[in-house]
Structure formats: C-alpha cells, structure tokens
Amino acid sequence: MDKKPRIVFMGTPAFAVASLSALLDAEMNVVGVVTAPDKPGGRGMQLQQSAVKQFAIAHNLPLLQPTKLKSPVFFEALRSLKPDLQVVVAFRMLPEQIWSFPPMGTLNVHGSLLPQYRGAAPINWAIINGEKETGVTTFQLQHAIDTGDILLQDRIPISENMTAGELHDTMMNVGANLLVKTLHGLIAGTIKSVPQDNAITSNDITIQHAPKIFTDNCQINWEAPVQSIHNHIRGLAPFPGAITKVDGKIVKLFSTSIESQNKTEKPKEQPGTFVTDGKTFAKFACTDGYIQLNDIQWEGKKRMPIVDFLRGYRKP
Question: What is the sign, positive or negative, of the torsion defined by CA atoms of 96, 99, 105, 110?
Fold first, then answer.
C-alpha cells in the first residue's frame, strides 16, 4: 500500500485515548472517531463526555456517538467517512455489518496475549490467576469475540505486587505503541496474520478466559492459600476492589503483602480472622499465613492507609 489508509477509530475510556493520540503522533490518517453517547454521572448526574470524545473534540476530529450500532443512520454516517480500516480499542461489541465493511477490515487492540484471556477483563484475570507475564495483541475482528487472526504481540512482565491498575497504565502505553507498529507493518505489507487456532495447536496451551467481573468475583475466600488471596486482591485493585467483612461491616482491600509462616507453623486464628495491635498493623489470618493490609476502605468511608484507619478503630 503506497498511501496511509483512511482510519476510523472506535473507543471510549482513557485507555483508548493513548492509542488515538499515538495514531495522530504517527501522522496516521484518522478521518473519524466513534465513541459512546454522553451519560449522566457525578454530582447532579450531569451528562459526562467520554475521554475519547473530549480528545476528539480537542483535536477537531469528526465524531459519531451512536446509541444503536445497528442503526441504518449510523451505518450511513460511518460509510460516508469512507474508511479503509477501522481500529477498535476498549469499545463495544460490533455487529458484523460494521466491522466487516471497510476494505482492510477492523483491527482490535486486546489486553492479553491471545488466544489467552479472551473476554472483558483480561487485565484482572491475568493477575488473579497469578500470571507472571501478559501482553497486548493486535488482531483482526471476526464474528466470535476475540478470536480473529493475530497480527502482532508485545509482552509485559507482571511483578509480584503489581495491581490491575498499575498493569492497566503500563498496558495502555504498550498497546498504543503496538498499534502504531501494526499499522506501519500493514501499510508496508510486512505483517502476516496468524490464526489463533494455529497458536493454540503449536503451543499446546489450555485457554484461560477473562469474563466480566461481578460482585461474586470480589468476595475473598479466606480458605484459599495466602498467595492466591494476595493475587485476588491486587487483581481487583483499584476497581472494583476485593470484599470481605470486619466486625460485620463490609470492607474493601486494595494493597496487601504476604506475611508467610514457616511450613510447620500455621496461624492460630481461624482463616478470615482480623488481627491487629490497634496501632501499627492489621492483617487477616489465612490457612498458610497472613495477609498484611497496607490500606482499607471501611463501609461508608474513603480508602485510607491502615495506620490512619487504626487511629479511629475500636474493636467491639
């Protein structure tokens, strides 16, 4: 391809803004942006613009905000932009009529090393499952979610105490750079796509999935091993937060560390017991160690460092 393709970008949150910004910095030909409709939020439930919309307006990019992606009005408006290619980053599921019509199809940026962690919450589940590595994949959309042919991938190490929020911020920039690299490769004709079935067969892997996080997924099972509980907590931080109870009150945990026991010594308390000196530390007993708390969010209160929390805490 001799010239840069006409690109329509689709995305909504701040995660997607990094990719859109990278496209402009690389002088790609972005001819339009599609994002979610404004939604009520904040104090007074005023209409809130998505992060992508704010960026598009600031950079004078043509903007579409369809309520229904199957609307003929939206399709005609999209087609009038004459895209050669569509790029999707953190957006809704597209109907086939939308993702299939550009000559070069639709490219998606996904927060995992596909075919692993297909689904809505790949960042969370990679950490919850104790993975030491994840990454970003660019791939071509097809009918089944997150199953299209792989274009490029970039790997990201997951450190022992990394939270989902920290991985999100790292992945946001890695993904933006990978997107630009992918587009340069497509323009130059140097990228050969790889079907995901080939990747599964050649690597002999068992697929882990990444479904949407629900409240039930946030409940801490104190009977689990201490390492598993630590992974669970950091995989849900800072949002939506891992949930347990102290003195009958719901609390959320975000930042923890492991206080291990000798293999021959186990906590004397029952798993899930809240243990504190009332001044400097608080922890939960597990089956094979303790989870040390760095901060906590008490029911009806803001998140705070554990030392600040203990100043006002009085055990019943």
Answer: negative
pLDDT at 130 over 90: yes
- Tell me the torsion sign for CA atoms 106, 188, 115, 242: negative
- DSSP codes of every residue in the chain: --SPPEEEEEE-SHHHHHHHHHHHHTT-EEEEEE-PPPEEETGGGEEE--HHHHHHHHTT--EE--S-TT-HHHHHHHHHT--SEEEEES-PPPPHHHHH-STT-EEEEESSSTTTTBSS-HHHHHHHTT-SEEEEEEEE--SSTT-SPEEEEEEEE--TT--HHHHHHHHHHHHHHHHHHHHHHHHHT----B-HHHHHHHHT-PPPB-PPP-HHHHB--TTS-HHHHHHHHHHTTTTT-EEEEETTEEEEE--EEEEE--TT---SSPTT-EEE-SSS-EEEE-SSEEEEESEEEETTS-EEEHHHHHHH----
Contact of 118 with 112, CB cutoff 8 Å: yes
Residue 205, amino acid: I
Give the Cα separation of 125 and 107 in Å (integer).
23
Whether cis (ω within 30° of 0) applies to the bond prior to 316 is no
pTM above 0.85, yes or no: yes
Q: Which domains does the chain have, with CATH numbers?
A: 6-203 (3.40.50.170), 215-312 (3.10.25.10)
pLDDT at 263: 52
Instruction: State pLDDT tens for residues 45-104.
Output: 788 999 999 999 999 999 999 999 999 999 999 999 999 999 999 999 999 999 999 999
State the Cα torsion 150-153-159-165 to the nearest 10°: -70
Please choose, from the candidates 255, 252, 283, 258, the residue with its C-alpha nearest in 3D space to the C-alpha of residue 163.
255
Pairing of strands 289-293, 282-285: antiparallel
